[in-house]
Amino acid sequence: MATKKQKKALITGITGQDGGHLAEFLHQKGYQVFGIIRGQHNPKKEKFVAEFPYVNLIEADLTDQSSLINAMHISKPDEVYNLGAISHVGYSFKNPQLTADVTGRGVLYMLEAIRLTDPEKKVRFYQASTSEMFGGKDYNRPDKGYNENAIFHPRSPYGVAKLYGYWITKNYRESYGMFAVSGILFNHEGERRGTEFVTRKITKSVARIKLGLQDDIELGDLWPKRDWGYAGDYVDGMWRMLQQDKPDDYVLATGETHSIEDFLSVAFQEIGIDDWHPYVKQNPAFMRPAEVDVLLGDPSKAEKELGWKRKVDFRGLVKLMVKNDLAIESEKI
Ligand code: NAP
Ligand code: F7E
Fold first, then answer.
1. Within a domain: residue 301?
2. Average confidence (pLDDT) over 234-247
3. CB-defined site of ligand 2, < 6 Å
4. Residue 172 is part of a domain; what is its CATH number?
5. Which residue's CA is the closest to the ligand 1 atom numbered 23?
6. pTM (2 decimals)?
7. pLDDT in tens, 135-164
8. What CA–CA distances, in Å, run from 252 to 77, 182, 236, 303?
9. Is 10 helix (H, G, I), strand (E, B) or coil?
């Protein structure tokens, strides 16, 4: 009996938070997974190979068109997930040109690599678009949250670069008939989140405070609100977008928004502290030249058409992150 052909996926940004979740998810679904790793000596490689021995790594860079074409020739993928980016909003203000090159123009290079190597247009392309394209101002925020038709107003070099990636993806779909889609994802976090992002910075610090390894946390603005979900839930949504009959763009979000103060409150409660204020100092170094005030997403379209829904809620997310960091930090004692 003929066996079903094993599907192949190529992931850029494989060493990032979502790259790890997606590699695991696709491997469990029986995919052969290829991942792009950059740099002549990437310090993340050794740990990555130990955790994901089944991923075939290819050396390439989103700013190097020929390396992406080479990656297409080696992997011959059915699906390409473009997760690679300069993804830290604060850092993008300090390195705006690099952000434009990687997070913006890198999308074009990946699309061109597909177009040039896949004349039959069989490859399906996922672009990691973001709620940062909306900007979170009062005037453009619908009551139910941002959906796929909301007005864009990016507030950082990162958001502007991502908007280019969003439009060039749509343009390649409309111009060349490629199956190219954007997932407009609101913040998603978890055990693999980088410690430079506020949620993981808080949960790691809270764990260390509990264990007597640290006295306090230095943060920037505490009032901004985010629609925070769990990264493991969101990679399922990415995959679902590429399994549809027709290419389209979707918002993935929880439909709830919480401030950083709310996050602090739940995280400290997890270690038995009801008042977090004495443990938090504000440092202007962590504030941004322009802030995104409130992000709230409306995932109705994805829920209806993709059958996707987030499983982990806000409290569950904070709990799992604190628990994970307590386990990691305890081992250091
Ligand atoms: P992340 O942890 O910051 O990972 C970013 C990845 O991009 C890393 O693997 C990094 O590789 C890679 N990268 C950086 N520069 C590159 C280059 N020049 N060429 C190739 N790869 C490069 O990000 P994430 O949280 O997993 O997010 C995945 C994607 O979704 C990103 O595009 C992000 O902007 C977008 N997004 C994230 C969220 C969220 O809440 N997490 C929400 C919406 C959209 P190195 O390890 O070598 O640095
Ligand atoms: O900041 C505030 C900061 O860096 C969240 C990326 O994955 O999600 C992420 O972008 C909020 C902001 O994430 C600190 O000013 C206060 O208001 O964790 P963050 P982000 O900027 O929302 C979107 C959807 C993406 O697409 C991005 O790639 O927290 N904040 N104090 C702080 N933020 C950080 N990082 N560090 C602080 O000390």
1. no
2. 98
3. 87, 89-90, 130-132, 186-187, 196-199, 201, 219-221, 224, 226, 260, 286, 288, 291
4. 3.40.50.720
5. 16
6. 0.98
7. 988 888 888 999 999 999 999 999 999 999
8. 25, 11, 10, 9
9. strand
